[in-house]
Amino acid sequence: METHVPATTPVTLDEILFEHRNKEYGAYELRKTYTSTVNRAMWIGITAFSALFITSYIFAHQKEKEEKKIIVDLTPEYRELEEPPVEQIPEPEPPRPIEQVQTIRYVPPVVVENPTIEEVPPTNEEMETAVISNVTKEGPISESIADTPPPVAPPAEVKVAEIEESNEAFLHVEVQPTFVGGASEMYKFLGKSLKYPSAAQRANVEGRVYMSFIVERDGSITDIQVIKAVGFGLDEEATRVVKLMPKWIPGKQNGRNVRVKFTIPVTFKLE
Fold first, then answer.
1. Torsion, Cα of 199, 201, 206, 208 (10° steps)
2. Which residues of 233-267 are buried (b: 16+ CB within 10 A; e: fewer)?
């Protein structure tokens, strides 16, 4: 007996396999919905995997944005440096006393009419053993008549010594050098320029680097030195930023620009 399938019903492999069989048993229904069930499961799996991947990517990206905050403590701290020894001004030597020797008054000859000799001029023998002077005095005979007596030096006046032009750097002056705009502007400059070294961040290293430099007469910064180091790149970073400083307002002593040695601390702290 032949089975005719209506033209409107498509002939599938399941229809052929379950022809003349009990289609209500369950296997026919499972095979009939197998393709749609597999597709649905596949899309659900893809959706879940995509959601998990996107979520992990968002968390990783968000974690990268959470950088460590850098706090640079720019509180000024000045160190008391040893003052240079004060040079003692030697006292002026007292003038040497002039030894009084025998002198004789020399009267130059004057041609006059009817001269009246009131005083006889000295002879050559007398002048050879006495010093020429305007008065005649008794005293020992000088052996070096040709030598003129040394002039009497006036007493030296004690004055305040002026500062000589030299390359010596002062530690304390009447007017200290300053950053253009004051200390607040210097702190802003350092805060913008400093970058925490990655090696110090990874090692969680904090510390305070003491920097020393000289403010020249024209305000430029020279002789930059690290007088107290920390390491892990913090010393090099502090040196780099100090080299970037613009010219300062130079220090003054007695109204003149002088070289001044300056010290500042730069503190690195992680939060």
1. 60
2. bbbebbbebbeebeebbbbbeeeebbbbbbbbbbb
The larger pLDDT score, comparing residue 148 to residue 41, is at 41
Domains of the chain, by residue range, sit at: 13-64, 70-84+163-270, 99-151
Residues 244, 231 contacting (CB under 8 angstroms):
no
Do the bridges between strand 260-270 and strand 207-215 make them parallel or antiparallel, or are there none, so unpaired?
antiparallel
As a whole number of angstroms, the distance between CA 268 and CA 72 comes to 5
Strands 103-105 vs 221-228: parallel, antiparallel or unpaired: unpaired
Q: Does 97 have pLDDT greater than 90?
A: no
pLDDT on residue 110: 58
Decide if 217 contacts 258 (C-beta within 8 A): yes
Per the CB < 8 A criterion, the answer to whether 262 and 210 are in contact is no
Instruction: Quick: pLDDT tens for 17-52.
Output: 666 666 666 666 766 677 788 888 999 999 998 999
What CATH number should be reported for the domain whose range is 70-84+163-270?
3.30.2420.10
Provide the 8-state DSSP code for 228: E
Q: How far is CA 23 from CA 2, 7, 27, 34, 54, in A?
A: 18, 20, 7, 15, 44
Selection from 259, 256, 238 nearest residue 248 by Cα:
259
